[in-house]
Structure formats: structure tokens, C-alpha cells
Amino acid sequence: MRFSKVFNVVGCHVGGEVCNVVVGGVGDVPGNSMFEKRLYLERERDDIRQLLLKEPRGSMIRSVNVVLPSTDPAAAMGYVIMEAEEYPVMSGGNTIAVATVLLETGMVPMQEPVTELTLESPAGLIRLRCECRDGKVLSVRFTNQPAFVYQLDARVEVPGLGTVTLDVAWGGMAYAIIEAGSLGFDLVPDEARDLCLVGQRIKAAAAEQLVTVHPENPAFAGITNTEFTKPLRRQGDVIYSRNAVVVSPGRIDRCACGTGTSARLAVMHARGLIVPGEKFVHESLIGSRFESTIESLTRVGGYDAVVPSVAGQAWITDMSQVGLDPTDPFPLGYMLSDSWMRSATSSENLLH
User: Fold this and answer.
1) Which is nearest to 256 in space by CA: 279, 231, 280?
2) Which residue has the higher pLDDT, 336 or 343?
3) What is the per-residue pLDDT across 133-186, written as a single tens digit (0 to 9) for each?
4) pLDDT at 334 over 60
5) pLDDT category, 349, cuts 50, 70, 90?
6) Which domains does the chain have, with CATH numbers?
7) Cβ-contact 10, 23 below 8 angstroms
């Protein structure tokens, strides 16, 4: 056996969503911030993402996180998030996975019953409160960067659907948020494929027709996700709801989606449906849950914003080494439209 590159990977899932963590094999990544390191990996080392996420070594229903030394002394470590077709600046589920792996493998010392730490994401510093017992992380609550609403009740023309009304909000990624019932969906598992097909069309139309430029960093991506939502329901002092987020290139986020929850909190607050300190429990299509709240209010550029915190749990599933044999005909992997919603072009490393 001979490998031209080897990556040490800790397998992990958060509420059913696979969020693997690369803890070795990447080496030094240039950049004065985690955002700059993200840009370098995207532009110069995208072979890492393709190797780990495309078939035959990966799949579209997972993401990976590259753990790196932080550029900020306030943070214990940094991380860059890689998904099937993009490099998000923030992801809630992936943040929970990274914190869990760092603590449960001893890369960062664990303090029981609570470990407080800060991680550096490409979106900025993320503060976490991790509840721990007997060497296990039972809950990770992260305080996100501010979330805000770009537009309420935006009207978008979607091929095959006509005019749809949706909200657009930032929660670490930009979301087109639409009531599932308005399109006849009940957000049950059997609808997953249809949600993906419709969600991709909505996302593409919204991204083309609506302007979403982050006021503090215009390099942050525009709309890349569709979030279908069920109505809110109150039980005592707690607000509950269900959502289904369609992630590129067209698959359902298995967890309740941390940045999607943050974006929805911003919309809920803008509509007067929640106040700071109230608890909001968000459920995924498979029934896993995140607990969230609005910690405080702020502003981002000219937008009113909320500072959300979101809590969930991760489970380590495996540890492996993923390598590349120099004779492997698929060094950058491949995609087929039976699962990826599109096939690779000739420039994307299919055999000729």
C-alpha cells in the first residue's frame, strides 16, 4: 500500500447529520484569519474537499471540518467547514461536532461538568458552553454571530410553481425561508425527495432575483439554502416547530440546522413572535432537535439583528485514515445525478 496523501478523520454525527472532523494530514494553511484560510483551501486545495466528500470515498450526505490552529489567541482552535458544493463560513451542526471531537479526543482539555471554550470559525469567534460527564459531551451550546432578516414577504417567480412568498435571512448562511404548507408539504420523511426538487428550484430563483449582500463582509455567500417551515406552536413557555433545510446540491439536512435555526429566530423576532430569553425548540425531518434562544439584540450594518444561541449533541462514530493511492483513477472523486442532482462535467474528473 502506498498513499500520496493521508487524512486522519474522526467520524461524527449531530442529530443524524454526518459532520466529520479532519484532525490531521492537511498541514499548514496560509492566512491571517480563519476566513482567509478558508479562501486558501477553496482556491488552492479544493482537492481535499473533493477527495473526502465526492464518491467513491465520500458522499453528498456529509460534510467535513478541517481543524486548524487558531489565528486569534482568544480561541482554543479554528476550523474550516467543507460541504458538498461550498465552504460555508458558519454551520451549527459542524460547530457542535468540532467541539465534541476536540474535547472527547483530548485535543482540548475537558472540564466537568462544564467546559467553556471559544473556537474560530470563518465567520468569526464562536463561544461555546459544553456540558460534560464521564468524558462524554452531553450538550454543546454555541453563541452564533448575529442573525438578521434581509427581506420579509419577498415575492419570487419559480418555474413550475409561479409566484411564491418567502422570507430571506442570514444565520451564518443565507436562507430562503418558506412555509411548507403553502406548497402542500407536511414535512414528513416521505416527502424528502420532493422537498429537495422543489427546494432547489426555489433557491435558484431566489438567488437570481433577490439581492443578499452581507453588510460586513460582501464575500460571504448569498442564498444557498431553502428552509421549509411548519407553523409555530406554544406549549407553556416553550415554542416548538419543525423545519427541513435543503442543502446544495439538493439533499435534506438531517439535523435541525443551527444556522437555519438562527435565521428563523431572526425572522420570528422581526415578526414579533419571540422575545429574547424565550426557548425555541426546532425539530428536523427525522425528529432530532436543537434548543435555541435569542441571547441579545444588536445591529449588523443597517439591519436589526439577534444574537442566537443553539444547543445540540454530537456522537463520535468512528476514526479512520483516508488516503489516495497515486494510481487511483478518481483522485478528485466523481458525481452522478442519481444522488447528486447533477453529473460531473468532463473537467470534474470523470474518466474519459
Assistant:
1) 280
2) 336
3) 999 999 999 999 999 999 999 999 999 999 999 999 999 999 999 999 999 999
4) yes
5) low
6) 5-135 (3.10.310.10), 147-312 (3.10.310.10)
7) yes
Q: Is 99 helix (H, G, I), strand (E, B) or coil?
A: helix
Strands 303-312 and 289-300: antiparallel
Q: Which of 200, 246, 204 lies closest to 227 in space, CA to CA?
A: 246
d(CA 265, CA 172): 12
Cα separation, 276 vs 189, in Å, equals: 32
C-alpha to C-alpha distance for 103 and 107, rounded to whole angstroms: 6
Q: Across the chain, what does the average pLDDT equal?
A: 95
Closest CA to 65 of 50, 45, 80: 80
Return the pLDDT at 333: 92
Which phi and psi angles does 106 have, rounded to 5°? 85, 10
Alpha helix locations (H) across 30-81?
Answer: 34-44, 46-53
Residues 55, 57, 59, 63: is their CA dihedral positive or negative?
negative
Q: What number of residues does the chain have?
A: 352
Which pLDDT tens digit goes with each residue over 14-69? 999 999 999 999 999 999 999 999 999 999 999 999 999 999 999 889 999 999 99
Q: Outline where 92-152 has alpha helix (H).
A: 92-104
The C-alpha atoms of residue 123 and residue 144 are separated, in whole angstroms, by 9
SS3 category, 278: coil
Using DSSP, how many helices (H) and how many strands (E) does the chain show? 6, 18
Instruction: Report the alpha-carbon distance of residue 8 to residue 16 in Å, rounded.
Output: 22
CA distances from 157 to 165, 176, 205, 323 (A): 9, 13, 7, 45
Provide the annotated active-site residues. 91
